[in-house]
Write a structure and sequence with these properties.
- α1 links the parallel β1 and β2 (about 40-45).
- The chain contains 14 helices and five strands.
- Helices cover about 50% and strands about 5% of the residues.
- α10 packs antiparallel against α13 and α11 (about 245-255) crosses α13.
- It is mainly alpha-helical.
- A three-stranded parallel sheet has the order 1-2-3. Strands 4-5 form a two-stranded parallel ribbon.
Length: about 325
């Protein structure tokens, strides 16, 4: 890694059997574009995943599949450090230290915890879910990240990370870089195909609204052809009046690197069916190379595991230096190595 470059850290949970179009546009494509300009650490955050119940075999399978999709979408393991969170014990160790300098009231104000406990209630939530932001802070601070590319929904967690870094530095001496959030652009926000006023999400009410990178092309095309539109038949971008059509136009524009206006002009006077058919070709053409490469990687799990283990060693060498400094500052004795 080139230490003269600014450092970025980001990650996603292995919480589904496939990443979806929102993940691809909202995070992966932007990570791919950043990896040459930054010293980049990209993580499959499987410790975060177990804050809610998981099937063990499924979690292991999804962890490998998520890492494989990172690579298939363009994350280069020779340029970036792509690793699995649980492979580097320093994440959990630093998270505990950060728990001890975080106020209970401060943690209680995290809006994501409130959002995630609305249905089941606080009594059903794990302590791990409550302390999720401190583990995220540990993820970032271990690598002395300058920049954290995240969605708007994670901004508050990065602000907490900054507060904890500054608090630790003030109490114990300069130890952490105080990171900046880089909010991933929202110009291409992708919505559910069946509920086009709701963000595309793995927690969608129906699989029919979710475009998944690893779906068979025929399944992807069928979902697009059945996407909700409206009754007036005009292909025009209007997020308020025509959310379904606007969503299709946005997806088309982003994946084809064209303007929405040019697509509106091309399909003026034509039916929704023609727009959907053309969009299905664009989406499947984008997804299919990723799907094939993912399958190749998963067909050789020993080689994928070797890649991830090598990356974990590189990540750990940085993380352990940070943790050594933290333990030394606060008076915790570590075994001599």
């Amino acid at each position: 890694m080139n230490s003269s470059k600014p450092v970025i850290f980001s990650g996603m949970q292995p919480s589904g059997d496939s990443l979806h179009l929102g993940n691809y546009i909202g995070a992966l494509t932007q990570w791919v574009g950043m990896q040459q300009a930054y010293e980049a650490y990209f993580c499959v955050v499987n410790l975060h995943a177990i804050t809610v119940p998981q099937d063990p075999a499924q979690l292991a399978e999804r962890t490998r599949a998520t890492a494989a999709q990172y690579i298939a979408a363009g994350i280069d393991p020779s340029q970036s450090v792509l690793f699995v969170q649980s492979h580097v014990p320093a994440h959990a160790e630093l998270a505990w230290v950060l728990n001890t300098i975080t106020g209970f009231g401060e943690a209680s104000r995290m809006t994501q915890f409130k959002d995630k406990t609305q249905k089941g209630g606080v009594e059903a939530a794990s302590v791990g879910l409550f302390t999720y932001p401190m583990l995220m802070a540990a993820d970032i601070l271990l690598y002395q990240a300058d920049v954290v590319p995240v969605g708007e929904d994670q901004r508050q967690h990065v602000e907490l990370t900054r507060d904890l870094a500054e608090r630790f530095n003030s109490r114990y001496g300069e130890t952490f870089v105080v990171p900046q959030a880089q909010i991933l652009r929202e110009t291409a926000k992708i919505f559910d195909l069946q509920e086009p006023t709701a963000k595309m999400s793995k927690s969608a009410a129906s699989e029919a609204g979710l475009l998944k990178l690893l779906d068979d092309p025929a399944v992807t095309a069928r979902k697009i052809m059945r996407a909700v539109t409206d009754a007036d038949g005009e292909i025009r971008f209007d997020r308020e009046a025509k959310p379904g059509v606007s969503n299709l136009l946005t997806i088309f524009a982003v994946l084809s690197n064209r303007s929405v206006e040019s697509i509106e002009n091309e399909f003026a006077g034509r039916g929704y069916g023609e727009l959907k058919k053309a969009l299905a070709e664009v989406v499947t053409g984008t997804f299919e190379p990723i799907r094939r490469r993912t399958e190749e990687l998963l067909a050789d799990p020993a080689e994928l595991d070797r890649l991830l283990a090598d990356a974990a060693e590189r990540a750990a060498s940085v993380a352990e230096r940070t943790l050594d400094a933290v333990y030394d500052r606060i008076g915790l004795i570590r075994p001599r190595r």
